[in-house]
C-alpha cells in the first residue's frame, strides 16, 4: 500500500485526471461548435484556411479512434470526413458518441502503457502520452482558430477557462 | 529501487517530459512570433481581438513567474505588460530569458508538488499540475489565433507538429 500511495502522490497527473481534463476541453469545443451559426460553421473561413466544420471532422477522426487504438492495440484508420449533411446537430451527435467511446476505451488503458511507444494510426511515432497530448493540443489549437472566426463574425466565444 | 522504477514506469508523464513538452511548444510560439512582420505583430488583429504582441505579453507574464511561484512558494504578481518599444527583438529576448528561468525553477519543483493545491498568482485556485496545464493550454490557444492572423496576412505559419 505504501508504494501505491506514493505512486499516486508523485504522479504529475493521474490517468483519471487527464481524462477529466480532456473531456473538459471537449465540452468547451462542443460549446464552440454550438456558438457558430449553422451556415458559418460549414462555410466560413479566413485566409484560405479550412472551415471549423472541417477542423472538427479532423478532431472526430482522431479522438475516439485514437483512444480505441491505444486501448485495444488494433490500428485504426484515420478518417477525417464524416457524412454530416451540413447539419450541426449531426456533428454534435457524433461528438457526444465520441465522448462516450473515449470514456469506455480510456478505462481499458493500463497505467504502464502511457510511457510505451506507439505508432498511432499506423503512422505517427511517439509514446502513448505524447499521442494523447497531441490529440488534446491539436484540439485546443483549432478551437483557438475558431474563436477568431467567431469574433470576426461578431459572436462572443465561450469563456476559455470554463470547462 | 523496485518502487522507484515502478513509479517512473507508471507515470502518465514525468516532470522532465512535461518540461520538454512545454519548451517544445514555447519554441513553436517563438517561431510564430518570428513569422510576423514587425508592424503586424504589434498592430494587426481581427474582430476586435488583441494583437499577438498583447497575447505574448500575457504569456510572458504567466510562464516564468508562474513556475517561480510554484518552485519557491512566493506569490508573484501577474504583470501582462512589458516595455517592448514596438521591437520584436525585445520580446524575443524576454522570451529566451523566460525559457531559462522556467528551466531553472522547474528543477526546484518536487515531484510530490504536482498534485498539491495552489492559488497561483494569489488568485487562481487549482492544483500545481492544473495550473501548469493552464499555462500550456492558454499558450496553444493564443498561438492558434496567431495562425489565423498570419494566414489572413498571407503568411504561412510554422508547422504545428514541429517542436
UniProtKB/TrEMBL annotation, chains A, B:
Family, as annotated: Belongs to the DinB family.
Family matches, as InterPro entries: DinB, DinB/YfiT-like
Any one Pfam family match given in the protein's UniProt record, by short name: DinB
GO molecular function: metal ion binding
Organism: Tenacibaculum larymnensis
Keywords: Metal-binding
Superkingdom of origin: Bacteria
Residues the entry annotates as binding a divalent metal cation: 142
Transmembrane portions of the chain: none
Name of the protein described by the UniProt record: DinB family protein
Amino acid at each position: 500500500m505504501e508504494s501505491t500511495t506514493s505512486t499516486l502522490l508523485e504522479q504529475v497527473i493521474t490517468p483519471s485526471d487527464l481524462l477529466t481534463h480532456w473531456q473538459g476541453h471537449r465540452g468547451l469545443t462542443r460549446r464552440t461548435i454550438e456558438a457558430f451559426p449553422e451556415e458559418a460553421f460549414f462555410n466560413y473561413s479566413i485566409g484560405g484556411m479550412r472551415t471549423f466544420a472541417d477542423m472538427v471532422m479532423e478532431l472526430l477522426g482522431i479522438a475516439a479512434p485514437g483512444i480505441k487504438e491505444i486501448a485495444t492495440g488494433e490500428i485504426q484508420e484515420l478518417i477525417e470526413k464524416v457524412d454530416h449533411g451540413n447539419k450541426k446537430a449531426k456533428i454534435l451527435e457524433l461528438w457526444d458518441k465520441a465522448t462516450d467511446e473515449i470514456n469506455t476505451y480510456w478505462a481499458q488503458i493500463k497505467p504502464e502503457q502511457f510511457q510505451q511507444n506507439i505508432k498511432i494510426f499506423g503512422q505517427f511515432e511517439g509514446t502513448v502520452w505524447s499521442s494523447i497530448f497531441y490529440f488534446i493540443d491539436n484540439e485546443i489549437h483549432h478551437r483557438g482558430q475558431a474563436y477568431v472566426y467567431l469574433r470576426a463574425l461578431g459572436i462572443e466565444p465561450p469563456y476559455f477557462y470554463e470547462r
